[in-house]
Design goal:
single chain, 293 residues, alpha+beta, 4-stranded mixed beta sheet, 12 helices
Length: 293
Amino acid sequence: MLPAAVKTAQYKGDLYGAPISSAGALLFYRKDLVSKPPTTWQDLINDCRIAKQHGMDCYSGQFAKYEGLTVNATEAINSAGGSVFGPDGSVTVDSPQAKAGLDFLVNGFKQGYIPKAAITYQEEDSRRAFQQGKLLFLRNWPYVYNLANAGGSDSVIKGKFGMAPLPGANGVGATTLGGNNLVLSSYSKHRKSVEQFMAFMESPTVQRIEVEDLSNSPVLTDLYTDKKLVAENPYLPILKEGLLHGAPRPQVPAYEDASLRIQNHISEALTGKKSTATVLKELAADLRKIPNN
């Protein structure tokens, strides 16, 4: 099973759930314009000259103030070797590594390799911009693959784009994981049946259905190199590489509360209202107010 998927069901070393699907982001890039995908942030920034030559914007993720901002911000922080919470639940976001990650995004807006319009982008806004030929690079989920290859009036890049793991500070980045886990209530009167159902949902048979019929990412590592599945979903081996470097969303019981605080503070950095150092210091103080037990 993917170690990163298992980690999403853990808290302070204990396992609380059974992973049944996973999800990670990919870097979509214009392979007709870029000879090879960037493997580091500096590579990506260097390639932005190509975007300028073609009258395009360079890079975007999802930076509107919603859950996607939490995902993109923590992804950048983790990709620079930082973290929001430590394994023991302590707040660790006010670190040099976290600052380096956030600086990549903040400098993107300042220096122009992230377009100003991206401050309003959610998944679909950024997908449409990429499909309409306005972006050289896009960070988004695998669902973009089929839509961008559909052609028609909404996509001018059919057959012109490739996929790669997200770049990070010094190599492959740490995609923020999505996916789903099953849990068994301690009050359940049907423990045996539920445990059998969990095992069934994690079985190779059902995991293939997750991919073939539901377009979900499986939690079983071997399926990412299954010849039949890869023929139908060529991004699977690339996604596997990214998932092996992936990280869960901030692991704290009051997650929604933490996510809202992250969004509010990070938005102040991206819009230039406060420096990254100030934002991370204030975010750390705010997150320490949340109970983590």
